[in-house]
Write a structure and sequence with these properties.
Number of helices: 15
CATH topology of the largest domain: Triger factor/SurA peptide-binding fold
Shape: globular
Order of helices and strands: HHEEHHHHHHEEHHEHEEEHHEHEEHE
Helix content: 40-55%
Structural class: alpha+beta
CATH architecture of the largest domain: Orthogonal Bundle
CATH class of the largest domain: Mainly Alpha
Distance between the termini: 33 Å
């Protein structure tokens, strides 16, 4: 257990809580009365066993993938059966070397090598085959999508020009931070959080700050002692930028009101970014409101939507027939984003989701649709072409998977 906690530092495998272990122990106990190789789903005649579902659920639990990892596991396994079947029909194959490389790339996100990551999963009961299947299906599906749609995803020079602004990037600064985010959703909680934040902002010891983050922070980063990855300074909310100006590494900011939360950031490091990179100037994002705040029901609904949608456009179907205002989509300059939204968006890649915010008693399902960039004279146009092509292929892939699901015969045998 201690080794697993050390391995999970800074990785999507978030570290294990005692509650998680209790849940897994209970699941193991209940499974003794069930046949692990019993078929629980059948997708166009292809079986998914109870053991596969248990393994994927455990894997997703270790990845802290959502409030309802079992439901997400079901969705993933059904989709992956459809993806594999489609790839096989199109004659697409992949090699063991490609799968191993993809496993290594996944593990490297947390600064692990492939073997260390597999060993860490194994200590918690996840077989290598489960990790392999998870990664291999992604590789196979991308290959199938490329084979089918790449000719239609060609990007023209004019499209590259339109994607890039004409003002050169000035370079800038990026910062490595730890955070403690405290709730401030009403006057009472705001007053209490401000008082606590004042005390936390005086912490100078790294380990003490990490312990406080684990104890008090409401952000997912609490599981890693508040540590978050490098951020471009000018992508952070203006009030955070101001608080970090002149701050020495190892020191914490004053309490910052981000609207709905009170934040304290500890500066771990900063570095200059040379001119000639892409500068992010605005964000295209969608917000879907789920009643119930951070209740288990609302979080479960958010996890189900996250498993269902692949792009921001998919949210239109989720919101169909619901009142106006439930779903909004905005394109906003980074400097003008609300503080809480800017903090969340700073940590998202395209089509990634945050469910850390609430508004008016609703849970905010926040999805980043796209960032708008502008180009310096040193920008590699080939990289921009690759990015635009990938975005176009993602749209094709989402549509294809929806077609496969509509045409599929999916049987729930439980």
């Amino acid at each position: 257990m201690r080794r697993m906690l050390e391995l999970t530092r800074g990785h999507p495998v978030r570290g294990l809580l005692p509650a998680v272990l209790l849940i897994l122990a209970m699941a193991t106990g209940s499974a003794t009365a069930q046949n692990p190789f019993e078929t629980v789903f059948r997708v166009n005649g292809s079986p998914i066993t109870r053991y596969e579902l248990q393994q994927r659920t455990l894997f997703l639990t270790l990845l802290n993938a959502g409030a309802n990892p079992g439901q997400i596991a079901e969705q993933q396994l059904v989709n992956e059966r459809l993806q594999r079947q489609a790839a096989e029909r199109d004659g697409v194959t992949i090699s063991d070397e490609q799968i191993a490389a993809a496993q290594g790339a996944f593990a490297a996100q947390g600064q692990f090598d492939r073997e260390t990551f597999i060993a860490a999963l194994g200590e918690q009961g996840v077989e290598e085959a489960t990790f392999r299947d998870f990664v291999a299906t992604g590789v196979l599906w991308r290959a199938a999508v490329s084979q089918r749609f790449l000719p239609r995803a060609e990007v023209t020079e004019d499209e590259i020009d339109r994607a890039l602004a004409q003002v050169p990037s000035r370079g800038g600064v990026r910062v490595l931070l730890s955070e403690i985010i405290l709730p401030a959703q009403n006057p009472e909680s705001e007053t209490a959080s401000l008082a606590r934040a004042e005390r936390l902002s005086r912490i100078t010891d790294e380990l003490e700050f990490a312990a406080a983050a684990r104890q008090f922070s409401a952000a997912p980063s609490r599981l890693m002692g508040g540590e978050i990855n490098w951020r471009a300074l000018d992508e952070l909310p203006p009030e955070v930028q101001s608080a970090l100006q002149g701050l020495a590494p190892g020191r914490a900011t004053r309490p910052i009101n981000l609207g709905g939360s009170i934040a304290v950031f500890r500066l771990r490091d900063r570095e200059e970014v040379r001119a000639g990179s892409i500068e992010i100037v605005s964000a295209d994002y969608a917000e879907y409101l789920i009643p119930g705040g951070r209740s288990p029901e609302a979080l479960s609904r958010a996890a189900a939507i996250k498993a269902e949608v692949r792009t921001c456009d998919d949210l239109n179907g989720v919101a169909r027939g619901q009142p106006e205002g439930v779903l909004t989509r905005r394109i906003t300059r980074i400097a003008e984003l609300p503080g809480d939204v800017a903090r969340e968006i700073a940590g998202l890649d395209q089509y990634e989701v945050s469910t850390n915010l609430t508004r008016g008693g609703n849970l905010v399902f926040l999805m980043l649709c796209e960032r708008t960039v502008r180009e310096s004279t040193a920008v590699d146009r080939a990289q921009v072409r690759q990015l635009l092509t990938a975005q176009r292929l993602e749209t094709f892939a989402s549509g294809w998977l929806n077609e496969l699901r509509l045409a599929a015969r999916i049987e729930d045998l439980r």
